Amino acid sequence: MRRYKKKSETDKSKPDMSFVKSLGKGTHGSVDLFSYTKDDGTTFYNAVKISDYDSVDSIDREFRILSELRGCLGIVQSFGDSLLQGTDCNDTEVFMMPMEYAAGGTLTNFIQRNRKMSDCHIKDFTRMILQGLVSVHSHGYVHCDLKPDNLLLFPRYDQETWNCSNELKISDFGLSTKAGEKSDCWNTDSPFVGTPVYMPPESIRDGGSVEQTLDLWSLGCIVLEMYTGKHPWTGVGLDNVKPLLLDGKAPEIPKSVPCDARQFIEKCFARKPEERGSASELLLHPFLIVDDKVASVAAGGERHRMVLRIRKPPPSLEDVTEKPSRLKIISSKSSQFKRVLKKPLKVKILPPRSPRSNFVPVQ
Q: Any transmembrane segments, and where (predicted)?
């Protein structure tokens, strides 16, 4: 197995991993958090995906794809030149892939914490997902399982203001396939390529090829979920999703969704895959075009972009002095006041009022 090497054979100068906690489990393995302590005493953390021998094909495929996408925008980063091979606490052979740790959790966690996401946050996250899809699709791949659980958040702090924003990245490429090829996940028992509620109608047609427009339908489902806080097809049983898709139906878009967002989602839900466009084209959709009059809010933060208007400066003092000044003298006494002054004044003396008091003078 050319891509695996036992942990004992790795460079002994590298720090040892210490288990911190479990981050989650999936179909093809689990993800745990490990800490590393360097010789200088500094500690850093990595998420490590662990799979047993039965799921080695999935983690091997994911490692190869992430190695190709290393350094690409919007993609979770993996480390190392190969998978690590070792044993777990039950002496079972496992394969491990170290990745960067997303301290902000998943987009699912973010939606649960923020039931009412702001329009700016949704647009920022949508842009980041599309930027990641541009990276994936430009390398000829289809993610095939795009959903909030597979979108990770990385908190970023401004060193000057200490405002926090979130960077979103795409993860979990265990089901990813080359565009135009048939997915290994297609079979009669599970006709969907990925998670059913995020899959388009063409994913049901067993025997066809996987195209990049499949990810765009999934993106529409994610944007819809960010607005509603609910999974697409909520209230519909999984067994009923397939006939609804084949009948030309798509997840319902509530009236509360803004008009520009509705148009964006409807484009992602186009029945003909070619009408959905591409990830690069969707980045130019009016829904994602930044309006200079609207504050741009970083995802998860409150950094506003200000628009400054430069006004024409007032004329200089020299320009003012070139023109002769005209003075108009206005009398401080009105004509009515002058007429009153010509009449003799009458003074009326009033007797003093007794003071208002409840005190009785003492003799």
A: none
Q: What is the pTM of this model?
A: 0.75
Cβ neighbour number for residue 220 with a 10 Å cutoff: 25
Tokens 């690590």 belong to which residue? 84
Side-chain-side CA neighbours of residue 197 (13 Å): 18
- Compute the C-alpha angle 129/131/133, nearest 5°: 70
Domain boundaries, the chain: 1-101, 102-308
pLDDT in tens, the chain (363 residues): 334 344 444 444 555 778 899 998 877 789 999 998 888 888 889 999 999 988 888 899 999 999 999 999 999 999 999 999 988 878 889 999 999 999 999 999 999 998 889 999 999 999 999 999 999 999 999 999 999 999 999 998 877 777 888 999 999 998 899 998 877 665 545 556 788 899 999 887 655 788 999 999 999 999 999 999 999 999 888 888 989 998 989 999 999 999 999 999 999 999 999 999 999 999 999 999 865 444 444 444 444 443 434 444 555 544 444 555 555 555 444 444 445 445 555 655 666 665 555 544 444
d(CA 81, CA 71): 14
Q: Does domain 102-308 have CATH number 3.30.420.10?
A: no
The correct answer on CATH 3.30.200.20 for the domain covering 1-101 is yes
User: Torsions phi, psi of 228, nearest 5?
Assistant: -95, -25
Closest CA to 287 of 232, 224, 230: 224
From 96, 74, 75, select the one nearest 85 (Cα to Cα): 96
Q: Which two tokens stand for residue 170?
A: 């795409």
